[in-house]
């Protein structure tokens, strides 16, 4: 059966094979399981405080390759491939409506024996984390948000710029990635270069969702009881970072909300921010 997340079956196969290769190369010791159709990377000692990691749109749990080994020293870590994204999860793409992703995440974390966890999400993953925390506040020990959707409006003009750049082949796709995220990958062999190449492959092969992430109502955000840490890029091309940061401060009161001058959608010092959000 054709996987309609991808533009072609050949593209789907290429992404699957490269994903598996990179996981073996950079996360050889993680446990790989499929829970009710959801692909999960797990690491760290059983019984340790649990951390759930949720990647962004067009990404996979490989996006957390630098953070998983660090967190796993003192936590039980579960990185989940989101439904409808290019990773190993075969659950159909869910509607962006309150409760849909929260119900999915509650089911997976129950199956993993992790009903109470620190939940950390980036971009789309941040939106999913917010949905979960608003629907199931007692299940969230702490909430870490990295340039999350759901707190400010999406910028639309940059989508047109990225679309035009992508017509220029591989160089254009890399330029679109730099423009959108603010990330210039290293040319040195290693994880950063391989992630950039994998992003180019998924950008070419994958059909991303185009619907915007709804902004959460204040009354929904008021249901969150866990400590929140949130960071935004001042020059984020995908969402309005300053407006989202202001909304977060108003919604969460004493939350640690940071607006990073000059930063784009991919934030600097991410490993330290993730470790701080995971807590003890």
TrEMBL record:
Keywords: Hydrolase. Residues 51-277 form the AB hydrolase-1 domain. Pfam families: Abhydrolase_6. Gene3D superfamilies: alpha/beta hydrolase. SUPFAM superfamilies: alpha/beta-Hydrolases (SSF53474). Signal peptide: none annotated. One of its GO terms (cellular component) is membrane. The keyword Protein biosynthesis does not apply. InterPro entries: AB_hydrolase_1 (IPR000073), AB_hydrolase_fold (IPR029058), AB_hydrolase_sf (IPR050266). GO terms for molecular function: hydrolase activity. The keyword Hydrolase applies. This is Alpha/beta fold hydrolase. The lineage of its organism: Bacteria, Bacillati, Actinomycetota, Actinomycetes, Mycobacteriales.
């Amino acid at each position: 059966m054709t996987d309609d997340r991808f533009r072609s079956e050949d593209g789907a196969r290429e992404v699957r094979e490269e994903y598996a290769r990179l996981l073996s190369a950079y996360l050889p010791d993680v446990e790989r399981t499929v829970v009710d159709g959801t692909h999960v990377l797990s690491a760290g000692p059983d019984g340790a405080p649990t951390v759930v990691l949720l990647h962004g749109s067009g990404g996979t749990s490989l996006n957390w390759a630098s953070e998983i080994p660090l967190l796993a020293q003192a936590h039980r870590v579960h990185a989940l491939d989101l439904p409808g994204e290019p990773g190993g999860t075969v659950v159909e793409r869910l509607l962006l409506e309150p409760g849909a992703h929260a119900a999915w995440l509650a089911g997976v974390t129950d199956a993993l024996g992790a009903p109470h966890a620190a939940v950390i999400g980036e971009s789309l993953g941040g939106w999913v984390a917010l949905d979960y925390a608003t629907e199931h506040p007692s299940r969230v020990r702490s909430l870490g948000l990295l340039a999350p959707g759901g707190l400010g409006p999406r910028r639309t003009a940059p989508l047109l710029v990225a679309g035009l750049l992508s017509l220029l082949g591989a160089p254009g796709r890399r330029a679109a990635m730099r423009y959108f995220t603010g990330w210039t990958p290293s040319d040195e062999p290693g994880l950063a270069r391989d992630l950039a190449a994998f992003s180019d492959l998924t950008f070419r092969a994958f059909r991303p969702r185009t619907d915007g992430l709804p902004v959460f109502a204040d009354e929904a955000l008021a249901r969150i009881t866990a400590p929140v840490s949130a960071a935004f890029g001042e020059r984020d091309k995908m969402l309005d970072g300053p407006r989202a940061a202001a909304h977060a401060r108003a919604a969460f009161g004493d939350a640690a909300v940071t607006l990073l001058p000059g930063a784009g959608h991919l934030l600097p010092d991410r490993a330290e921010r993730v470790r701080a959000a995971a807590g003890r």
